[in-house]
Amino acid sequence: MPVGELGPEEVVTASNESTLGEITELLDSEGVGTVVITDDGAPVGIVTDRDAALAIHQYDDVADVPVADVMTDDPVTIREDEEAIEISRAIEEHDVRRFPVVDENGKLTGIVTLDDLVATIGEQLDNVADTIEVQSPGYSP
Question: Hey, which of 8, 45, 62, 120 has its CA 20 to 30 A from 140?
Fold first, then answer.
């Protein structure tokens, strides 16, 4: 299954001109844990709810902090035509949980997370269990 078929296609985005206050408002109002910072449709940064929480101890007025000061620059991306297993490899290699999905031109088309990978594996295992039960009538989990 291609990465482009996992996770939401609608990604919450903001510009690198945003403040952390604006980003946290988006996190809250959209009910997400990540905002992808874009420039001309391409991901240039990523801010998570964890980044926002950690900023509280670093700045006196968190709301006015430029997003560029707390975002992860140049986030690791995954192309939409990659197979879902690439999420696992990217998690291992880069030690992150969320990946902007991009097309062949580097434009943002979605986002995938560790949770998407776990849900996909769960669905696949459920399919395997169904096959085992059909082929082994005496088997019961």
Answer: 120
For 106-123, give one letter per residue: b (16+ CB within 10 A) or e.
eebbbbbbeebbeebeee
Task: Answer whether residue 140 is part of any domain.
Answer: no
Alpha-carbon dihedral of residues 3, 69, 53, 38, nearest 10 degrees? -30
The domain of 49 spans 3-135
**CATH number of the domain that residue 83 is part of:** 3.10.580.10
Where do we find the tokens 């776990």? Answer: 118
Element of type H or E holding 126: helix 114-135
